[in-house]
Predict the structure.
Amino acid sequence: MTVWKVDMTDATEPLATYVRKADGGPVVITDEGRPIAALVVLENADLETVALSTDPEFLDLIQNSRAHHAREGGLSSAEIRDRLKRGSSG
């Protein structure tokens, strides 16, 4: 995998050019050498997944839920699926 680095002042090509480059690895946009953005190819992701994975409030909710589960326990996703299967079968 290649990581492409492009300074913001040098990023004058059409967006499509950078999207094609991102197929081989992320394109990192920098400002005076500091990374400020990245263009990556998304696989198996819909718009909602992308939106939630970058939403600070949602990420905080997930982090708090995981911490609560670690402290106080709870049901694993496998246990929940098993209970749902049993509940729907009668």
About this structure: The CA atoms of residues 25 and 37 lie 14 Å apart. The first strand starts at residue 4 and ends at 7.
